[in-house]
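Hi team,

Below is the intake form for Flavin reductase from Acetobacter garciniae. Please confirm the fields before the structure is written into the shared record.

FORM ID: S-0412
PROTEIN: Flavin reductase
ORGANISM: Acetobacter garciniae
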Amino acid sequence: MDEQAKKTALRMIPYGLYILSAGTLETEIAAATVNWVTQTSFAPPLLALGIKTDSHVYAAARDSGDLVLNILGKGQGGLAFSFFKPATYADGKLSGEAITWAANGAPILASAPAAIELKVRKIVELGDHHTFIAEVTSVHLNQQIEGRPDEAVLHMKDLGEKVFYGG
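The structure came back. Fields below:
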């Protein structure tokens, strides 16, 4: 397979940007920017998330089974970049960001336009990112979404011409 052609073709798949958080005050809290996310079922509502196996958020998600997918909005590129490195919880904030707590105990970023609470149902352990299949258990709209909801999302392409993930 032509390596460059493979990268080009796979990078043509559009990706939104999200911050996945897991853990509780009683356990280790972790969060990371993720982009391999898609809805896979209406009933029950299921999402598939690709999570890098050597990340802190992978371990916290696997151990707790309770997650929050914080959906980033247009103009939140700086927030996406800040969670490219391991998150820290201090003084009631996650990497300096104000949070609230989901019913499942995981942190919700107050500045994210929307957040989805998830319960892990299955983990497919293939590749360097494992696929978590998680059921939507609750949602939070932290602000009014105007127009098409899918146009309010921060996309990988919004981070600049040289920022790619995948391929």
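SUMMARY LINE: The domain at 3-159 is CATH 2.30.110.10 (Pnp Oxidase; Chain A).

Thanks, M.
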